[in-house]
Design goal:
This protein has 7 helices and 11 strands. Strand 10 (208-215) and strand 11 (218-223) form a beta hairpin. The radius of gyration is 18 Å and the shape is globular. By secondary structure, the protein is α/β, with parallel strands linked by helices. The chain has helices at 3-13, 36-45, 58-62, 79-99, 109-114, 148-153, 236-244; strands at 23-28, 51-56, 71-74, 103-107, 128-129, 139-146, 160-166, 171-172, 185-190, 208-215, 218-223. It has a 9-stranded mixed sheet with strand order 2-1-3-4-11-10-9-6-7, with helices on both faces. Strands 5-8 form a two-stranded antiparallel sheet.
Length: 254
């Protein structure tokens, strides 16, 4: 077979499922990143050989270093501090990176950052944050109710899942549609709630906890709670990164 025919076949067929090259993952490093970041990196490191992990500062993102990675992770901590550290230029760089095919994983603070609800947001997911006033509603174990799609994707044979919560965003759909930002698929909602520090009861339950969407040619995945801080759920971090990098099976790649 000629080289020309081989190249044409590869173009038509697209990426080959089962490509075992490691996913190039960059974890944001800078103001607003909390200690849970180390657990997140450990969850990826445990999947030996599947990921090449680096850290990127806001300045490196602004200077174009995202071109060298497949997936960017903004970990737990302060979404506002991470967003302000990026600055307008850095936020635009992340948005364009995802639009052109990159993957974005936001966990807790990184999920706040992904929304289009703040001046420092990345505007990657059309989601409002419910009850912003009581964002510091407390930490603890909560129960999620998984959708049928969520149960399958997260490889959890039950529809309920216990997970650690640390003041992540309560996500909900808007009454109006932002045409420039994609709607999300909700894989899990909160079935129980934490309502400390003056937070009202009856608000957290039924808001979205795990969401994903396509953004341009790229993908976005957000966890409001912390799988990396929950025994038995560490694998959800590499699983979501694989989806973002389009390394999952055809059945899961939806």
């Amino acid at each position: 077979m000629s080289l020309r025919v081989t190249v044409l076949l590869l173009i038509i067929a697209g990426p080959v499922f089962g490509d075992d090259s490691p996913v190039r993952v960059a974890v944001f490093q800078g103001t607003g990143v909390g200690p849970s970041c180390e657990k997140l990196i450990a969850a990826l490191t445990a999947a030996a050989g599947q990921f090449e992990i680096s850290r990127l500062t806001a300045e490196e993102i602004r200077s174009g270093k995202l071109a060298d990675v497949d997936v960017l992770i903004h970990p737990g901590g302060s979404g506002s501090k991470q967003g302000n550290a990026l600055g307008e230029q850095g936020r635009l760089a992340v948005r364009e990176y995802v639009n052109q095919g990159g993957g974005y994983l936001g966990v807790c603070g990184g999920a706040y950052l992904a929304t289009n609800d703040y001046s420092w947001s990345l505007n990657l997911v059309d989601a409002k944050v419910v009850d912003k006033r009581h964002w510091a509603r407390g930490n603890g174990t909560v129960t999620l109710h998984l959708s049928s799609e969520g149960s399958k994707f997260l490889r959890h044979d039950k529809r309920e899942m216990a997970i650690h919560y640390a003041q992540g965003p309560l996500l909900a759909r808007r009454e109006w549609d932002d045409r420039d930002v994609p709607n999300y698929d909700s894989l899990a909602i909160y079935a129980t709630e934490i309502a400390k520090n003056g937070a009202p009861r009856g608000v957290m339950a039924r808001t979205s906890a795990v969401v994903r969407c396509e953004f341009g040619d790229g993908r976005v995945f957000c966890f409001s709670p912390h799988p990396e801080l929950t025994d038995g759920l560490h694998h959800l971090i590499p699983l979501s990164v694989q989806w973002l990098a389009r390394k999952t099976s055809p059945a899961e790649d939806r």
